[in-house]
């Protein structure tokens, strides 16, 4: 069926016309609100309070969500919202990495607010169409598309019965449907989920950008926390925005010269240095696969190990030489010369409903190679690419899928699961065929894939209650926290990174703090106070990207030549100043690097209180599984026996000579768990929180975040 026939089958449910308006200093000063239950479309003002205290991006999303839900709201309730916003800097074309969207909802996995940072054109085009954010609430009776035409000033809710659901097909269909010509396809961005989002709690959202060289809509993912599951539960088939006329001054910045100056400087650094630093233009984030292996940080066999003899089979050069197209400007927004959105072209699929199709695959990124590959003991680049494709089009978070599958494989090898329980799947480490079938089952909503799609937290309960598994063992090896699966770094030898995972607001995702090299390799933060300072600064600094519609990669995946001689090289201070300059250049404000951190602190503390309001967000929720701290099993300890024995002698004063491995493990565990608790104390103190993890009223007041409704929640829990 062609797209014209599909379009004819659309039923217009509601149309809303609006004045196009004009951006001023990065803001349109209004939000598009859509309620799918009563088919209501409205314009809501963006207030000065929102801009001053929440800035934009995920800050706006959290504020709208706070006002939409109650402490009793569940992810599947109609009042739950999906909010998409870029931020005041989002959409500028002069500075690399300025095309991000931030998505916020109540997570099916965690029950708390989740935020996810995603590329593609949707956020900037939404802003240029006249809206600082899109706020979607309610549930439709049947599958609908929300269509926004930013040149005509029209919003429509259309019933859409015939289009595909899977992301790569639906993205192509809707791009062709709403474009007037081949050239017009670049003016369209589509947000979709996929079939697995209907049957699992780990659904993601795909955001498209049209690749004019490959002539195909590419997919970028808002991956974490099950946002795509919420999307499909609301019967949203897609969001579509169309805007023609992108140019460098559409934000109407206060001083474009500041933006140009910072952008030119960074473009020159990327041109000079990328090929000798991180090779982002060659391979993207997959450049670190072999680096992580070398430093014993590559998660292998459900985070038991940090390296493997077969890692060379999935090293970055393998993908560069055989799979990833070279010589393309692979930016996922205009003007991004870092060009890290790499792709494998004309990849022929071997399994599943699209077997035999030749497709373009986004990536693999590092997380996909590590999670789908080494963590599951699978060192096959073609499996990684195929699983990567199917995760994307089915709308399955690759990080959660990799960590879930690795957990299942360890349970299988320990006899907790068998072929009878898994419906015939032999889920040993290394079984690529079984892993792919598990993924296809998630798409179909059947078999053991349906259980796996519930996530590790719920599987631990099922395996204990129905299969008689030891709950303590499952707690130790189940790499989830707050309900969210860990991303793909092994933090056992970095106490700071354990905190970087455990002390997050949304769960163990490295976008708040990636401190492994500072802590473990470079020994830059040796004391608890040093670690606490790093776990204050870096989460706040990284939060700032999500308030402004920015990607973090241009900050620290390229560094100026002089950086090593700066006072604080881990912060990349020249680049920090760049961000101060472009924020001031867009908004006309006059912040400095200290106020930049305070902007993030306001939102970060607000999100912590939001978690507490939803029944989470205290010290007990910041505990982490012991597998992320130290060796759970005898084989783990003995794989690094010399290291652990040395630590027992030097750090604890315990003589391991003549002791059994179990005795040594017990002593080491006590020490490491105590260290983590001391770290929590130091971080809470530095952040201005109580020892139960609650922001104090004094802290909120010092930030100007002592809003009455926020203080009320804190008072109840203090």
TrEMBL record:
The keyword Flavoprotein does not apply. One of its GO terms (molecular function) is oxidoreductase activity, acting on the aldehyde or oxo group of donors, iron-sulfur protein as acceptor. It comes from the Bacteria. Residues 27-245 form the Aldehyde ferredoxin oxidoreductase N-terminal domain. Its cofactor is [4Fe-4S] cluster; tungstopterin. Gene3D superfamilies: Aldehyde Ferredoxin Oxidoreductase Protein, subunit A, domain 2, Aldehyde Ferredoxin Oxidoreductase Protein, subunit A, domain 3, Aldehyde ferredoxin oxidoreductase, N-terminal domain. Belongs to the AOR/FOR family. This is Aldehyde:ferredoxin oxidoreductase. It comes from Geosporobacter subterraneus DSM 17957. The lineage of its organism: Bacteria, Bacillati, Bacillota, Clostridia, Peptostreptococcales.
């Amino acid at each position: 069926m062609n797209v014209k026939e599909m379009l004819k089958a659309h039923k217009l449910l509601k149309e809303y016309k609006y004045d196009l308006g004009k951006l001023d200093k990065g803001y349109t000063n209004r939000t598009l609100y859509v309620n799918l239950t009563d088919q209501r479309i409205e314009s809501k003002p963006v207030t000065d309070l929102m801009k001053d205290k929440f800035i934009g991006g995920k800050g706006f999303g959290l504020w709208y969500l706070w006002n939409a839900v109650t402490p009793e709201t569940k992810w599947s309730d109609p009042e739950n919202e999906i909010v998409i916003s870029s931020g005041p800097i989002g959409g500028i074309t002069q500075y690399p990495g300025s095309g991000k969207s931030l998505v916020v909802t109540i997570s099916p996995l965690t029950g708390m607010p989740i935020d996810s940072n995603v590329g593609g054109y949707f956020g900037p085009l939404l802003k240029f169409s006249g809206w600082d954010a899109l706020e979607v609430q309610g549930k439709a009776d049947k599958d609908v598309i929300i269509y926004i035409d930013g040149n005509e000033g029209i919003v429509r809710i259309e019933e859409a019965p015939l289009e595909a659901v899977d992301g790569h097909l639906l993205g192509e269909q809707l791009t062709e449907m709403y474009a007037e010509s081949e050239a017009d396809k670049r003016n369209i961005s589509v947000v979709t989920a996929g079939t697995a989002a209907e049957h699992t709690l780990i659904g993601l959202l795909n955001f498209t950008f049209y690749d004019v060289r490959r002539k195909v809509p590419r997919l970028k993912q808002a991956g974490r926390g099950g946002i795509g599951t919420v999307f499909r539960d609301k019967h949203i088939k897609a969001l579509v925005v169309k805007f023609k006329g992108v140019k460098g001054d559409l934000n109407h910045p206060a001083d474009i010269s500041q933006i140009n100056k910072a952008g030119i400087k960074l473009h020159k650094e990327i041109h000079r240095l990328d090929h000798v630093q991180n090779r982002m233009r060659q391979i993207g984030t997959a450049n670190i696969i072999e680096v992580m292996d070398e430093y014993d940080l590559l998660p292998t066999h459900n985070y038991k190990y940090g390296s493997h003899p077969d890692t060379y089979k999935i090293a970055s050069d393998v993908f560069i030489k055989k799979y990833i197209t070279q010589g393309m400007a692979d930016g996922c927004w205009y003007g991004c010369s870092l060009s890290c959105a790499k792709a494998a072209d004309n990849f022929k699929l071997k399994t599943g409903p699209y077997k035999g199709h030749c497709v373009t695959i986004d990536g693999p990124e590092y997380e996909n190679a590590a999670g789908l590959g080494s963590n599951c003991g699978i060192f096959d680049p073609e499996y990684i690419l195929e699983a990567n494709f199917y995760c994307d089009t089915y709308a399955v978070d690759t990080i959660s899928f990799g960590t879930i599958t690795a957990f299942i494989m360890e349970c299988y090898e320990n006899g907790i699961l068998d072929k009878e329980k898994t419906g015939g799947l032999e889920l040993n480490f290394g079984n690529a065929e079984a892993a792919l079938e598990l993924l296809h089952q998630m798409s179909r909503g059947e078999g053991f894939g349906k259980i796996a799609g519930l996530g590790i937290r719920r599987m631990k309960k099922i395996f204990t209650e129905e299969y008689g598994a030891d709950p303590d063992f499952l707690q130790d090896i189940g790499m989830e926290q707050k309900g969210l699966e860990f991303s793909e770094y092994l933090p056992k030898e970095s106490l700071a990174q354990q905190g970087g995972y455990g002390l997050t607001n949304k769960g163990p995702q490295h976008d708040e703090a990636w401190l492994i090299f500072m802590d473990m390799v470079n020994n830059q933060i040796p004391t608890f106070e040093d670690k606490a300072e790093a776990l204050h600064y870096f989460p706040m600094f990284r939060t700032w990207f999500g308030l402004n519609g920015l990607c973090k990669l241009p900050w620290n995946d390229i560094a100026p030549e002089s950086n090593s001689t700066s006072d604080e090289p881990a912060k990349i201070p020249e680049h920090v100043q760049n961000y101060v300059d472009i924020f001031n250049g867009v908004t006309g404000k006059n912040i400095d690097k200290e106020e930049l951190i305070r902007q993030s602190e306001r939102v970060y503390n607000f999100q912590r209180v939001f978690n507490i309001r939803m029944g989470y967000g205290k010290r007990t929720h910041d505990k982490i599984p012991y597998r992320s701290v130290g060796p759970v099993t005898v084989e783990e300890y003995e794989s690094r026996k010399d290291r652990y024995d040395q630590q027992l002698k030097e750090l604890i004063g315990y003589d391991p000579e003549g002791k059994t491995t179990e005795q040594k493990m017990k002593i080491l565990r006590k020490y490491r768990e105590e260290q983590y608790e001391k770290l929590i104390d130091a971080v809470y103190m530095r952040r201005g929180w109580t020892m139960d993890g609650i922001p104090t009223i004094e802290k909120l007041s010092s930030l100007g975040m002592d809003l009455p409704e926020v203080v009320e929640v804190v008072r109840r829990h203090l």
